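Hi all, posting the design record for the shared folder.

TITLE: backbone redesign
STEP: 1 of 1
STRUCTURE INPUT:
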């Protein structure tokens, strides 16, 4: 009789099949768990209670092992994380030849995704997953729905169970997430199984108790996934089980697992990648051995010693720190000797191993110590130097950047499922001084009408010398004037200066956004109306080509006409002021006397009822 797969079992017995499969898989691939423990110890130099199943004492997990005295692996992994994962790229949605409404929704979808990334702390969790990849070889992110909300969390790769034999030539079709969960949390999520959950915490994970310990407050929960075998196949399954009970069984129609994986180095075959900790193990162990040798030699040989003549009399076998002490002696004086403990070649060899470790990882040792090469002061030179260093990590950087668009696709897919069930998936978009609530229903667009792209992060220099050089370049190119450059050289706040210099055009762009959203605010005299008329006109022509509604086009025409009226009004008032000034400068002309004498106020130019500045502040609009 052919043995059934776990996803083919009945709901009442599927947990037994799952636990039996996971037990056998963990026993067969126990080498992966042991490798993860070794890599974690090399990185942190402590035993981790949450990783090593054999540990039961809570206070023992943070005791230093005393094996690593100079941690090359930790330095290299942290530097790689800072260099590659420290930049945040922004996800954008590009539409090719789409209608105007689709383009507007794509812009709203960008804001929705950015708000969700902030809400779920995606970038923080992705950075943690990247560090895991440098240590263990593979980092994992889990993006899932719970009670109508989207969550993103980093998952320790040791909790992911995949049969590498299934991944010899293709991606896995089944995956198991084994995790310790607080029993009260499980009871809150599955109130119908409170007794079964309580019993499972007392059984110490029956089958796997040989090498996995747990306390009475946690239960081992296994979340299992099997992907559909084909487009119309019905064997996709998701199961959540504990020892002794099946908590959840449901169909799984997605062609992916709710996980995103990042690998520092892709395996030739199989599932798990190779990290920096594994690549640098040999060098780290050699450095540890050399340090132990040097330490022992220093303790035994480099200790100061005093040689005295045994024939000397009145010899006292002691030393003291008395100042100006007079010690009488007879015979030869004592000889103080400090021997060289280790040959300089040993120290040079150890330093070469340290440098070699950074070279193997492709990391500049100056990056690890936050130093720049001598002579590189200009922003151009620093950017070129950073570009050269980034070439070594081109593959790792590109793979890490792909996590953001992949995560965006998962967020959108989950939001569609929530919307189909009648729920709402809202997001809060935070701009510099703007908070906007966006519902996914208003921003949703069909698949195939957009492409997800990444925008680069800020390229402004971070070092004071580089920022000062950037100020000089801006002044030389005419971006800022001399006074502004002088102020910035004292305090190079480039971001604020860039914001102020872009305030006019960003204000016009915000006005265009409001007009395209159907909001109309009349132009103000203090706006850059010349720029506004030009850019609003260009936006009007593009919106008309894209098929924008007539009311939006009418608002844009109305704004252009109002801005034109404001400019003409300003020009008219300026001309009146100039004429008045000219009249004031001309000497009064003598007029023939009249019988009644000169009229009151003769020769005095008429005064305006309001000053030109006051007239500019009145409400504006299209004249009727």
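Okay, here is what came back for every position:
SEQUENCE:
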């Amino acid at each position: 009789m052919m043995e059934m797969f776990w996803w083919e079992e009945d709901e009442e017995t599927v947990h037994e099949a799952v636990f039996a499969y996971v037990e056998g898989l963990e026993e067969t691939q126990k080498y992966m768990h042991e490798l993860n423990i070794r890599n974690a110890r090399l990185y942190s130099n402590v035993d981790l209670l949450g990783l090593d199943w054999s540990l039961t004492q809570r206070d023992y997990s943070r005791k230093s092992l005393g094996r690593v005295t100079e941690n090359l692996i930790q330095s290299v992994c942290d530097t790689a994380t800072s260099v590659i994962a420290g930049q945040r790229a922004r996800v954008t949605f590009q539409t090719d030849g789409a209608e105007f409404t689709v383009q507007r929704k794509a812009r709203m979808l960008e804001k929705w995704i950015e708000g969700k990334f902030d809400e779920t702390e995606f970038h923080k969790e992705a950075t943690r997953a990247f560090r895991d990849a440098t240590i263990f070889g593979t980092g994992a992110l889990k993006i899932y729905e719970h009670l109508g909300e989207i969550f993103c969390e980093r998952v320790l790769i040791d909790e992911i169970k995949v049969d590498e034999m299934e991944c010899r030539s293709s991606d896995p079709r089944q995956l198991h997430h084994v995790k310790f969960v607080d029993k009260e949390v499980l009871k809150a999520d599955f109130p119908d199984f409170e007794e079964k959950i309580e019993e499972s915490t007392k059984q110490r994970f029956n089958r796997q108790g040989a090498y996995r310990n747990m306390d009475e407050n946690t239960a081992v929960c296994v979340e299992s996934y099997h992907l559909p075998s084909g487009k119309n196949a019905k064997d996709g399954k998701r199961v959540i089980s504990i020892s002794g009970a099946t908590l959840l069984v449901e169909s799984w129609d997605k062609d992916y697992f709710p996980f995103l994986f990042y690998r520092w180095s892709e395996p030739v075959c199989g599932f798990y990648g190779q990290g920096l900790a594994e690549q640098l193990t040999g060098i780290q162990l050699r450095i540890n051995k050399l340090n132990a040798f040097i330490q022992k030699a220093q303790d035994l040989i480099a200790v100061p010693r005093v040689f005295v003549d045994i024939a000397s009399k009145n010899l006292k076998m002691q030393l003291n720190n008395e100042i100006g002490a007079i010690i009488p002696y007879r015979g030869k004086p004592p000889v103080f000797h400090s021997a060289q403990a280790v040959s300089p070649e040993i120290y040079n060899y150890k330093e070469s191993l340290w440098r070699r470790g950074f070279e193997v990882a492709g990391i500049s040792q100056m990056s690890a110590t936050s130093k720049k090469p001598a002579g590189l002061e200009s922003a151009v030179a620093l950017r070129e130097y950073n570009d050269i260093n980034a070439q070594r990590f081109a593959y790792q950087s590109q793979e890490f950047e792909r996590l953001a668009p992949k995560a965006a696709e998962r967020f959108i897919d989950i939001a569609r499922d929530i919307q189909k069930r009648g729920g709402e998936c809202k997001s809060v978009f935070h701009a510099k001084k703007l908070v906007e609530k966006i519902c996914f229903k208003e921003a949703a667009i069909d698949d195939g009408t957009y492409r997800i792209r990444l925008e680069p992060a800020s390229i402004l220099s971070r070092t004071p010398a580089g920022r000062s050089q950037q100020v000089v370049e801006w002044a030389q190119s005419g971006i800022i004037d001399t006074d502004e450059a002088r102020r910035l050289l004292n305090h190079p706040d480039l971001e604020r200066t860039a914001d102020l210099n872009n305030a006019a055009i960003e204000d016009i762009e915000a006005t265009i956004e409001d007009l395209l959203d159907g909001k109309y605010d009349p132009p103000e005299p203090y706006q850059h109306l010349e720029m506004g008329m030009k850019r609003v006109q260009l936006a009007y022509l593009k919106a008309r080509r894209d098929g924008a509604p007539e009311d939006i086009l009418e608002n844009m025409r109305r704004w252009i006409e109002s801005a034109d009226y404001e400019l003409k009004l300003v020009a008219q008032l300026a001309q009146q002021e100039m004429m008045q000034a000219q009249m004031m400068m001309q000497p009064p002309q003598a007029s023939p006397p009249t019988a009644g004498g000169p009229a009151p106020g003769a020769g005095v130019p008429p005064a305006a009822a309001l000053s030109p500045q006051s007239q500019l502040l009145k409400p504006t609009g299209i004249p009727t």
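COMMENT: The radius of gyration is 37 Å.
Let me know if anyone wants the other runs.
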